[in-house]
Write a structure and sequence with these properties.
The protein is of the alpha/beta class. Helix content is 40%, strand content 21%. The structure holds 1-O-phosphono-alpha-D-ribofuranose and uracil.
């Protein structure tokens, strides 16, 4: 009887040991699988130890923690590499609503999924900008004008730096005032010019004027244009120079502002002069956007839809339905670009690693 009990006890022991071994083996296989998935996601590369951004403030390592005040984040409470390390595309536009709509659109286009009961969360707690993350795409609102976008870019660049992001591409998806082009036309900026027609962003630093070149990446502009084939999209796209004004009214020679000290005749002459210089549209952020991204070694582009032809008037009278249709046009181009870049990379990885397509495509949760 005692021997029988001992045997039962021993069996119990064996069983417990087997269960422990099994659990350990499952745990270790899980770890191996996790490593494999990470390995494939990283394209078989080691995690980078610094971002590809250049020319940033050499004192950044001294700020421990660093507070990104307008984004409502800091390096002590946010693990930047973990949360933002995979960001490859930063898409920006004036309004929070547009950027939220773009975030949902890109989620659909990339076949990424949220669990059914959740919505995309605005990750910027600073109440100034809205920021959504959809896989490798950040969608951020920048407000109006160069001062606003400049503040945002300083904080986004620090985010990219702390997150060790690799070659992020920045694209502004905006609206603009066209000069001699049909409303609804998409403009890819070839250059961002200030109001004196110089490709330059001027800031006053310690009382002195400092100028930064605001030329944009020509290759990226061409890549975007190549995706606007009229056989594939149902809108016109043009490439041309953009004037970045510091104001919507007098700064863009409108006749309908609260003040106006010039004539309709001088306005027409001014716009014709711009047109003669290859300018096709007005916006209010492109010089700061182009110059700051260039300074940080970031490729960038400005893609805006025209909501008015300034040769025919100043007031924007397009109906909400047209504005909503037009808003989607730059988004269509940018979504095509993002999908193309990601698909090219998958195909490249497949060639190198012989990874089956189902491992890198398909639906996955954000
Ligand atoms: O439509 P978004 O991208 O906000 O940009 C344009 O619209 C605003 C003016 O209405 C300016 O900020 C101009 O740049
Ligand atoms: O006319 C316009 C329209 C949109 N954005 C501008 O800056 N100007």
């Amino acid at each position: 009887m005692a021997a029988k009990c001992k045997t039962a006890g021993a069996m119990q022991c064996d069983l417990t040991r087997d269960v422990c071994q099994l659990k350990e083996s499952v745990r270790s296989q899980g770890k191996q699988l996790g490593r494999l998935v990470r390995h494939m996601k990283m394209g078989c590369k080691k995690p980078p130890n610094q971002s590809t951004l250049k020319g940033l403030n050499p004192c950044l390592p001294c700020f421990k923690p660093d507070f990104l005040y307008h984004l409502g984040m800091d390096t002590a409470t946010t693990n930047f590499p973990k949360v933002f390390g995979d960001v490859r595309f930063v898409c920006m536009g004036g309004t929070p609503g547009r950027m939220e709509r773009f975030a949902y659109r890109i989620m659909k286009d990339l076949r990424l999924k949220l669990s059914p009961v959740t919505t995309l969360r605005n990750m910027a707690d600073g109440h100034r900008f809205a920021l959504y993350k959809v896989g490798p795409v950040l969608c951020v609102s920048h407000g109006m004008g160069c001062p606003s976008i400049s503040i945002l870019l300083h904080e986004l660049f620090k985010m990219m730096h702390y997150a060790k992001c690799q070659n992020p591409v920045f694209i502004r998806i905006g609206t603009c005032g066209g000069i001699g082009i049909e409303p609804g036309t998409v403009v890819i900026s070839s250059e961002a010019l200030d109001c004196k027609l110089n490709p330059c962003y001027e800031v006053i630093v310690q009382g002195k004027i400092v100028q930064h070149c605001s030329k944009l990446d020509q290759c990226l502009a061409q890549e975007l244009q190549s995706l606007a084939n009229p056989c594939e999209v149902d809108f016109e796209t043009v490439v041309g120079k953009t004037i970045c004004a510091d104001d919507f009214y007098e700064g863009q020679s409108r006749l309908d502002g609260a003040f106006c000290d010039y004539t309709s005749h001088s306005k027409t002459a001014y716009l014709l002069g711009l047109k003669g210089n290859g300018v096709v549209n007005f916006d209010m952020e492109s010089t700061a956007f182009a110059a700051l991204t260039k300074r940080a070694n970031i490729r960038s582009a400005v893609v805006c839809v025209s909501v008015i032809d300034r040769m025919n008037g100043d007031q924007i009278r397009a109906c909400p339905k047209s504005l909503s249709v037009w808003e989607k046009r730059p988004q269509e181009l940018v979504s095509r670009y993002i999908r193309k870049v990601l698909l090219d990379e998958v195909n490249e990885a497949k060639k190198v690693n012989d990874v089956p397509a189902r491992c890198v495509g398909g639906e996955s949760e954000i």
